[in-house]
Amino acid sequence: MSNGDDETTNHIEKEYIRVANKNGWPGMYQKVCRECSQYPYTFNEARRLRNKPLNRYRDVNPYDHSRIILKRYDLDYINANIVRLSGHPDAQADSIMTLFMPEFVVEMYETSLQQSL
Q1: Which of 1, 22, 83, 95 has the CA that lies 20 to 30 A from 114?
Q2: Where is the Tyrosine-protein phosphatase domain (predicted)?
């Protein structure tokens, strides 16, 4: 890890601690929900009856346009999106953002391999 990586990690940890000390996570979650509701994106696959049990939370779903589609299973759904990181000069790669359920760890591992991330 380069010195810049250490500084970024240190900044992220400090921000996490600052929010946690103020018990600010519920408010931060509500803010993100409000902001995301303004986007024109859909999450129809997450709402399909067969996919609902695969969502850890009923109100945190992957957008259809950027969701990961599993290729090696009968069911192609997992609660995960490819997200382009921004706001930092070293953020050049895509990342997987997910809230998968622990019993689907094998599928998440397969997703990582499939996406080569």
Answers
A1: 1
A2: 51-93
Overall domain count for the chain: 1
Longest CA span, the chain = 48
CA gap 112, 16 in Å, rounded: 26
Q: Write the secondary structure of 54-90 as one string of H (helix), E (strand) and C (coil).
A: HCCCCCCCCCHHHEEECCCCCCCEEEEEEEECCCCCC
Dihedral over Cα of 73, 77, 80, 84: its sign: positive
**Residue range of the domain that includes 25:** 3-115
Q: Which of 95, 92, 69 is closest to 82 using CA atoms?
A: 95
* CATH number of the structural domain spanning residue 42: 3.90.190.10
1: number of Cβ within 10 Å? 7
pLDDT in tens, the chain (117 residues): 455 556 656 777 888 899 899 999 889 889 988 998 899 999 999 999 999 988 888 888 889 998 888 887 788 888 888 776 666 555 555 565 655 556 666 665 566 666 654
